[in-house]
Design goal:
It is built from eleven helices and 16 strands. The chain is of the alpha/beta class and 394 residues long. The protein has two domains: 176 residues, ATPase, nucleotide binding domain (Nucleotidyltransferase, domain 5, 2-Layer Sandwich); 197 residues, Hexokinase, domain 1 (3-Layer(aba) Sandwich). A hairpin with a 3-residue loop joins strand 1 and strand 2. The two termini are 30 Å apart.
Length: 394
């Protein structure tokens, strides 16, 4: 059995997989010529991350639900998790999770050798999929010309802000994790300067993530429009980002509409800052839960204009190919015909180590002992079409 999961700041999704066996047509069967068995999803569960005191207690809840559903927790051979944070020395360093995760403790909890467990930054997991996406997995925000083997960039706003860099190493793209979201926020105009000055009264440093993330919506609204106070700001359990974007799309609150515009331009500007640092002429990809929820707004052009507004290199940035990557799951287990639209994980076993990738049809290195196992699509952001304009859920 294989356990794979996406551990986010808001929700965590875990899937229990059974090995389908050689030659058996599992949903996550390895691609042509790759060898290896397929994997069948047995049980899937999404849980609110902050409802648990530790990742181990979250795993206990998953185990209990698995057993209650009539399955057995046994014969676990490997596990891998994409985690919202920096993976350093076998542990996760992050401000967006309510607890820490340590590889050694987790391996003991799962009764696995360390070599059969992998922790990977969630943006790295997403970035590894980009070279393997189909055209119908992407929505072009700007029809630029991508250069072969040029660097690529991925940026994703949700509970926090994630950024990752892809560079060509001579044989394939490698991914470099980044914590660029923790760099200092750089205001571009008077309103953003007011944001910076106000937030500086609350915290010693103001990083980009304080604005370009879900929590940035409320900060922008309350600082730029102090005279407009919504009752839901004081309601426990209510997500202000969701309500602000709902009212913005409904055009029921001018302050909410302008808040969304300010936030989106700040997002575009930060993506442009990232592009200046690495010159990703191979493409810039926008992912994350918020982009999906405000997609109609992103398509209006304000994001692209803010991205390109960079003085002497504005023309060059405007020529970059910018895509919204559909890193979402548009299916249910009962409808496997939709599988081709989705991004499965892959667990790549390399000399006893486990690395978690997404849609890796050709892993970077393929020594004789490497055995790829393509897992079924896992939900990074389950949002049906009807919910696209319902507000940000983070």
């Amino acid at each position: 059995m294989i356990l794979a999961g996406d551990v986010g700041g808001t929700k965590s999704t875990l899937i229990w997989f059974a090995e389908a066996g050689p030659g058996k047509a599992g949903v996550g069967q390895a691609g042509p010529g790759e060898g290896g068995p397929g994997l069948e999803p047995v049980f899937r569960l999404s849980l609110p991350t902050r409802d648990f005191s530790s990742f181990e207690t979250l795993l206990d809840a998953f185990r209990a639900a698995l057993v209650k559903a009539g399955h057995q927790w046994s014969n676990l051979s490997a596990a891998a998790f994409g985690v919202a944070g920096a993976v350093v020395d076998g542990g996760v360093v992050t401000n967006n999770l309510p607890w820490t995760i340590a590889s050694k403790t987790l391996a003991e909890n799962l009764h696995l050798d360390l070599g059969r467990l992998s922790l990977l930054n969630d943006l790295v997991a997403s970035a590894l999929s980009l070279d393997h996406l189909r055209e119908n997995d992407l929505l072009l925000l700007n029809q630029g010309a991508s250069q072969p083997r040029a660097p690529k960039a991925l940026i994703a706003a949700g509970t926090g802000l994630g950024e990752a860099i892809l560079f060509w190493d001579g044989s394939g793209y490698r991914v470099s994790p980044s914590e660029a979201s923790l760099t200092d926020f750089a205001p571009r105009n008077d309103r953003e300067l007011l944001l910076l000055q106000s937030l500086r009264q609350r915290m010693p440093r103001v990083c980009s993530e304080e604005i370009v993330s879900g929590r940035g919506f409320r900060a922008i609204h309350q600082i730029i429009f102090p005279g407009v106070h919504h009752a839901f700001f004081d309601e426990p359990g209510v997500d202000p980002a969701a309500r602000i974007t709902q009212q913005a799309f409904a055009k029921s609150c001018p302050a909410c509409m302008e808040t969304l515009q300010i936030w989106m331009e700040a997002y575009g500007a930060e993506a442009g800052n990232m592009a200046l640092r690495i010159l990703p002429f191979g493409g810039v990809y926008i992912a994350g839960g918020i982009a999906l929820k405000i997609l109609p707004k992103l398509k209006q052009g304000g994001f692209v204009r803010a991205f390109s507004d960079k003085e002497k290199l504005s023309t060059q940035l405007a020529k970059m190919r910018r895509c919204w990557a559909r890193l979402t799951k548009r299916w249910r287990l009962r409808d496997r015909r939709a599988e081709k639209l989705l991004l499965p994980f892959s667990l790549v076993f390399h000399n006893g180590d486990v690395a978690i990738n997404r849609q890796i049809r050709k892993p970077f290195h393929r020594p004789a002992r490497q055995r790829p196992l393509n897992l079924d699509p896992i939900d990074f952001c389950t949002l049906p079409d009807a919910e696209h304009q319902a507000g940000v859920v983070i």
